[in-house]
UniProtKB/TrEMBL annotation:
Its cofactor is Co(2+); NAD(+); Zn(2+). It catalyses: 7-phospho-2-dehydro-3-deoxy-D-arabino-heptonate = 3-dehydroquinate + phosphate. InterPro entries: Dehydroquinate_synthase, DHQ_synth_AroB, DHQ_synth_fam, DHQS/DOIS_N, DHQS_C. One of its GO terms (biological process) is aromatic amino acid family biosynthetic process. Residues 61-172 form the 3-dehydroquinate synthase N-terminal domain. It comes from Candidatus Avidehalobacter gallistercoris. This is 3-dehydroquinate synthase.
Length: 338
């Protein structure tokens, strides 16, 4: 299956197919210097499968986890490119989850003012959401994604089979972003979550490709209309204003991203019937729906959020499932959602 993203001056394909990790060379030129950036929890067989397709490959391995999305590892990737003589016509491949994709994309955006990169996401979260759209970033301190650039990949390869090596927590964590996609832009996707069983094996065997395709289509349609988040793309932040604060409050070592977004979605959903349906879906997927952080702590973090503008913040609300709206509020008004 191929999904095409078309934005001004750039067009790329998302290849979604079981086993496609073995066939990357059929779709993109690997006959050049290739730096594969991965993390130390990615199974060796995935790295080797990719290396076999690259005649001139180099490997840069970072530690797994959100803490690695920092300047030290960004510099590590830059140095790997520089020390091995990479030029603008060479290629960087991100083989890993959202952290690997974000920092690799940012390194590619900034090395020699921009070079090609390819995303091969290996986590549910990155396959469903972060591998497309062109947002690349690192964290600064405990503030997520505050330093970054828009830099679109040349291609994205999504192999659902690689999800088999994830633990249960990380598998379900990523599904939160697909629930979000259903909430903001595809009522049928949300209803699919309501109807299907919560058993991981069944989801992975019978539902995961449909979930990934529907979630990516929601994001693709939005990104094509607003690549750099000047308006419509902000709806993709549903649950993220509060969710990022919850994630940061745990010093990036508490709730996982999807878990925090799950809580954030519940916090900002005002309609009681919609909230009840949302909580039921998240509970089925083993995702949290409450948090224990003090409101003042979350509010202080939100004040530094890049979505805040002076004393105002744009909050995304869902008046009915499948539709989202942007509401600009005074920062003080965020209290009721914390």
């Amino acid at each position: 299956m191929k999904i095409t993203v078309e934005i001004p001056n750039h067009k790329y394909n998302i290849h979604l197919k079981r086993g496609i990790l073995q066939d990357v060379h059929k779709f993109i030129d690997l006959n050049r210097k290739v730096l594969i950036v991965t993390d130390d929890e990615i199974p060796e067989q995935y790295v080797m499968a990719l290396q076999k397709q690259c005649p001139d490959s180099y490997l840069a391995t970072i530690h797994a986890g959100e803490q690695s999305k920092c300047f030290i590892y960004l510099q590590f990737i830059w140095n790997a490119l520089l020390d091995n003589g990479f030029g603008r016509k060479d290629l960087v491949i991100a083989l890993g989850g959202g952290v690997t994709g974000d920092i690799t994309g940012f390194a590619a955006a900034t090395y020699m003012r921009g070079m090609d990169y390819v995303n091969i996401p290996t986590s549910t979260l990155s396959q469903i959401d972060s591998s497309i759209g062109g947002k690349t970033a690192i964290n600064l301190g405990d503030v997520k994604n505050i330093v970054g650039a828009f830099h679109q990949p040349r291609a994205v390869f999504i192999d659902p089979d690689v999800l088999e090596t994830l633990d249960d927590r990380n598998f379900y964590n990523g599904l939160a972003e697909a629930v979000k996609a259903g909430m903001i832009g595809d009522a049928a996707l949300f209803e699919l979550f309501e109807q299907m069983p919560g058993d991981r094996a069944v989801i992975q065997a019978d539902y995961i490709e449909d979930i990934i395709e529907k979630a990516l289509t929601v994001k693709k349609n939005i990104v094509e209309q607003d690549e750099q988040e000047t308006g419509l793309r902000q709806v993709l932040n549903f649950g993220h204003t509060v969710g990022h604060a919850i994630e940061s409050a745990g010093e990036l070592a508490g709730l996982l991203h999807g878990e925090a977004i799950a809580v954030g979605m519940v916090q900002v959903t005002e309609d009681k019937a919609i909230k009840e349906r949302l909580i039921n879906v998240l509970t089925k997927l083993n995702l949290p729906t409450t948090h224990e952080y003090p409101a003042e702590q979350l509010k202080e973090i939100i004040a530094h959020d890049k979505k805040a503008a002076g004393s105002k913040i744009t909050l995304i609300k869902v008046p009915q499932i499948g539709q989202a709206e942007r509401v600009k509020l005074p920062l003080a008004a965020i209290d009721k959602y914390l």
